[in-house]
Write a structure and sequence with these properties.
Blueprint lengths: L3 E3 L1 E2 L2 H4 L23 E3 H9 L1 H8 L12 E2 L7 E4 L20 H7 L10 H5 L2 E4 L2 E4 L22 H12 E3 L1 H51 L5 H50 L1
Length: about 280
């Protein structure tokens, strides 16, 4: 099997920003995609063993020590089988990562030494796109350090993830024609849905403001109307008359209360002395 068969393409691949600019080498990702190792398909495995004399000096290790599993038979990989790479104890990254620097030794041999591109595992060539049993999708969650998650400068046009990885996707996967048609329709629906949501949000906000203004005006008017009767001349005269009459009653109260209070004041003082003394002893 020279290509992996795909019957369904996730539309998010066409909506997500791609590896724009200089791609992975133009980002400060610290090789996060190398953290868990990778699956090496059979076609790549053969090339790795063929060129191990070039690989081993770059990784400071033996090629055979770079694998965590034996060969597994699986028709979801080119060649119908694969092996999982090991991760290094020192930095917990793929055993084929360049020693003490960013990047992959296999990718380096293709880009710099012009070895066949198949020496780079399929999963690494299309990352962060991945696949499983006929479905092509994004390997989530995408880490914020990944180039496709970087903040795009204002005015910069960024191609989609499908666009930046298209060359590799078409070289490695056998995608049925109707899969693209279905995906394009899904992408259109996603875009229409976003526009509809934005359009629906604006009228609601306007209606809310109008309602608040309308509700506020009648309350203010009622308050003003209710305040007017209190300022009439009759009400003011009545208040003054009541105020003058009130002090006389208060004077009568004071006279009545003053005389008995003077007689009862003496016993209170006498009772207070023993209490104070008792309190002091207790302390």
């Amino acid at each position: 099997m020279s290509k992996i068969k795909i019957t369904d393409v996730d539309p998010k691949i066409m909506a997500q920003n791609g590896l724009w600019g200089e791609g992975c080498y133009g980002s400060d990702c610290h090789s996060i995609c190398c953290e868990y190792g990778c699956d090496v398909d059979l076609a790549t495995l053969k090339l790795i063993y063929k060129h191990k004399d070039l690989i081993e000096p770059l990784i400071k290790a033996k090629v055979e020590d770079c694998f965590a599993t034996k060969l597994k038979i699986d028709d979801d990989y080119i060649g119908g089988a694969y092996r999982e790479t090991a991760t290094r104890e020192k930095d917990k990254t793929c055993a084929f990562r360049l020693h003490d620097q960013k990047g992959c030794s296999l990718f380096y041999l293709w880009a710099v030494k012009k070895l066949p591109k198949k020496i780079v595992p399929t999963i690494c060539r299309v990352y962060p796109v991945t696949w499983h049993r006929g479905r092509l999708f994004i390997d989530t969650p995408l880490r914020k350090e990944c180039k496709c998650k970087e903040i795009v400068p204002k005015g910069t046009k960024v191609p989609s993830l499908f666009d930046t990885q298209k060359k590799e996707i078409m070289a490695l996967f056998d995608i049925q024609d109707n899969s693209f048609t279905k995906t394009e329709k899904k992408v259109e629906n996603m875009a229409t849905k976003k526009v509809s949501v934005k359009a629906a949000a604006k009228p609601k906000a306007a209606a809310k403001k109008t309602t608040v203004k309308a509700a506020a005006k009648p309350k203010a008017a009622v308050k003003k109307t209710a305040a007017k009767p209190a300022t009439t001349a009759k009400a003011a005269t009545a208040k003054k008359t009541t105020a003058k009459a009130a002090p006389k009653k208060a004077a009568v109260k004071k006279t009545a209360a003053a005389k008995p209070a003077a007689k009862k004041a003496a016993p209170k003082k006498t009772a207070a002395k023993p209490k104070a003394a008792a309190a002091k002893k207790t302390k």
